[in-house]
Structures are given as C-alpha cells and as structure tokens.
Amino acid sequence: MPKKFKRVHLIVMDSAGIGEAPDADQFFNQKTPDTGANTIGHISEKVGLDVPNFQKLGLGNITALKTVAPTDSPLGYSTKLEEVSQGKDTMTGHWEIMGLDIKNPFPVYPDGFPEDLLEKIEAFSGRKVIREANKPYSGTAVIDDFGPRQMETGELIIYTSADPVLQIAAHEDVIPVDELMKICEYVRSITLVGSEWMLGRIIARPYVGKPGNFERTANRRDFALAPFGETVLNHLDDAGYPVISVGKIHDIYDGQGINKDMGHNLNDMDGVDRMLKAMALPDFKEGLLFVNLVDMDAKFGHRRNPEGYRDAIQDLDGRLPEIMEAMNDDDLLIITADHGNDPTFVGTDHTREYIPFVSYSKSFTTPQALPIGNFADISATIADNFDVKPGEIGKSILADLK
C-alpha cells in the first residue's frame, strides 16, 4: 500500500528547465532550434549556482551540473520530466502538469496581430493602438521605445511574443489600472475558443516612471482561457479537498478547480511568504497548495539575464528550510517547472526542455533518483494520493515515494 500524504505543496519555478527535450529541434528561438538549451545547467556553468538546500534534496542527482554536486544520501526523490504536449508556453506546461494533453499548439502571431482585431480594440477602448509596437517584443524594451509616446498621446501599446499572448502595456498615470483591466477583459471576450483570433492569454502590463526609468508594477494580471478539459484540480475540488493557489496559478487555470486564492505575488519572495501563510491556515489540514514563482521567467529568462536568474534560484534555496520546517510529518513538497527559458540562449523565447522534479517529506525513508517521467506524472501522483480521478495522461509515482 503506497504511503499517503495529507497535504501536497507544489511549487512551479516558472521556466526553470533542466536540459533540452528530445524534440527540442522542432521548437525555435528566432529561427534557431532549441537544441542545446539548458536553463539550470547553463546558469550553473556560466555564472555559478550556489544552492546547498536544493543540493541536499537531490537537484544535482538529476543531471550533471557544474556547481551542484550529486549526493549519495539525498533528502528527497528527484528526476526530470518530459513534456508530451505540443508547446513550450506557460499554459501548456501547467495544464499538462495537471493532466491535460494539448495536442494542438496555441496560435502565435510572429508578424503581429491582424488589423481587424486592433480596430475592434480601438473601437471599444476609444484609444488608438501604436502599430509600430505590434510585433513580438521584449516587455521592457517595448515600454522604453513607446512609453514616452504613450504618455503624450494615450495610445495603447499592444505587443506579443513567441508565446500565444496579447499583452497591453499601459502607464498607470495615463491609462488607469481599472481601465486597462476593462480593455483586457474585452479582448479576452473576443479571443476565446472558436473565435477568429483564439489566444492563450491576454496580459495586462501596467508600468510607472518616467522616460529612461520605466518600471513594470505588480498590478499585472493574466486573463487566460479556461482549460480545454477537466484537470486534477477540478477532481480535487469536486471531492471537497482544499485547492489553494498562490501567484498566477488562479489566472493560468481561469480559476477552474481552485477554491481559495492567496493572491498575486509582488515578487517571488512575497510568493513564498504567501505560501507559508497558506500552510499555516487552520482549515488547511489536507489538500493541495499550488504555487507559481514567476520572476525567474518574467524578469530574468526573457531578459536573458543569467545572473539575475541565478540569484532568484538562490533566493528560493535560502527559503527552503523555512518551507520544510513548516511542513507536517505527513506533508509532501514537490518543486518543478513548466518549461525552459535559458537566459544564455539566443532570442527571448521559452526553450523546449525537461523540467526538474524534486520532492521532500519528513517521512521519507529511502530517497533516491527516479526514472525519467512526464509532466503529468505530477498530477497523476496527486490524484492517486487523494483517491480522485486522474487527468487524461500521466503515471502515478506515489508508490515510489517511500
């Protein structure tokens, strides 16, 4: 009989891949295949990575890392997981983690959004759209380039990336946050499944500051499509278990299957604070706590900043003792990712990679490295633990966590 855990705490280090996937040659960054990408590996190799707590849990046992050694006596079980779905974006990765198989990738707009869509947005908002920004763009570069113009004219900065997203950047002193959210809600309503322009996410990107010193704020919000089927989150919720979200998890699943949200993170360390508050809730005696830490992806991966990415991982490593101490004896901690975003790679897009799987429980007796699995093995294991229906795909490894 497999060991059962009362509570599962699942942390997604957004974009912290751990080596090129077998099909990396079929995914591209500026026409360069993702072959050779390795987010954690290249950070360790090129700028060093000092993560003693991750090392103790077995991160160095997953694959060869220059500055994270393997250990003969890990505190946790570890492996790497391969993506089955056709995509390397946030929604595809998260949805697969919770048991969905996304066979058809979301449409992307490498040449920008069509004119008729922009005209609809203009008609609704009463604001013009800056056409020159309408293309794949770095989120910080686009406000540096067009923020001054927006401050003068009140026009909308609409841009995309290599992901299936439409992003609207708006200076909070020019286009108030409430107005930006209403515009994004409208765009979401006309880009749903079955529409002419189906999009995975509409992202509100508020910012403040003056030309030459713009800064994006924590008022970001993602307006995502609802998952294309029931996930293990739905099955847990239907069975009456608490399903608690931290960070952008609620947005990624459009709230489906989540019955308590701890809110958006100001930054990753605030996300850890929110996680610890959730762990201490008096009515959270069983169920799932699901956390996304986005800074690694948004602030450092896309901006190709390996030093900042390293610091973000090390900051989380420094908080692991707090998280582990706050766990009950029959709790399970899983730390993983949703795709790669190698900050040493060409372009600014996500990279098609394996993701790490590191787990810990105070009750483990024989932690070791595990065979390679798939993203959805996480939700299959969670479903098996709580005796609820699994997702479309995935194989439980609960019996291996002894």
UniProtKB/TrEMBL annotation:
Catalytic activity from the UniProt record: alpha-D-ribose 1-phosphate = D-ribose 5-phosphate; 2-deoxy-alpha-D-ribose 1-phosphate = 2-deoxy-D-ribose 5-phosphate
Record-listed E.C. numbers: 5.4.2.7
One BP annotation, GO: nucleotide metabolic process
Cofactor binding note of this UniProt entry: Binds 2 manganese ions.
Cell location: Cytoplasm
CDD domains linked: PPM
Cofactor list: Mn(2+)
Phylogenetic lineage: Bacteria, Bacillati, Bacillota, Bacilli, Lactobacillales
UniProt binding sites for Mn(2+) 1: 14, 338-339
InterPro entries cross-referenced by the UniProt entry: Alkaline_phosphatase_core_sf, DeoB, Metalloenzyme, Phosphopentomutase_DeoB_cap_sf
Pathway membership: Carbohydrate degradation; 2-deoxy-D-ribose 1-phosphate degradation; D-glyceraldehyde 3-phosphate and acetaldehyde from 2-deoxy-alpha-D-ribose 1-phosphate: step 1/2
Function: Isomerase that catalyzes the conversion of deoxy-ribose 1-phosphate (dRib-1-P) and ribose 1-phosphate (Rib-1-P) to deoxy-ribose 5-phosphate (dRib-5-P) and ribose 5-phosphate (Rib-5-P), respectively.
Keywords per UniProt: Cytoplasm, Isomerase, Manganese, Metal-binding
Principal location listed in the UniProt entry: cytoplasm
Keyword Isomerase included in the entry's annotation: yes
Top EC group: isomerase
One of the record's GO cellular component terms: cytosol
Ribosomal protein found in the keyword field: no
Official protein name in the record: Phosphopentomutase
Source domain of life: Bacteria
Any GO MF annotation of the entry: manganese ion binding
Binding site for Mn(2+) 2: 297, 302, 350
SUPFAM superfamilies the record matches: Alkaline phosphatase-like, DeoB insert domain-like
Family from the record: Belongs to the phosphopentomutase family.
Species for this entry: Lactococcus termiticola
Metalloenzyme domain residues: 6-389
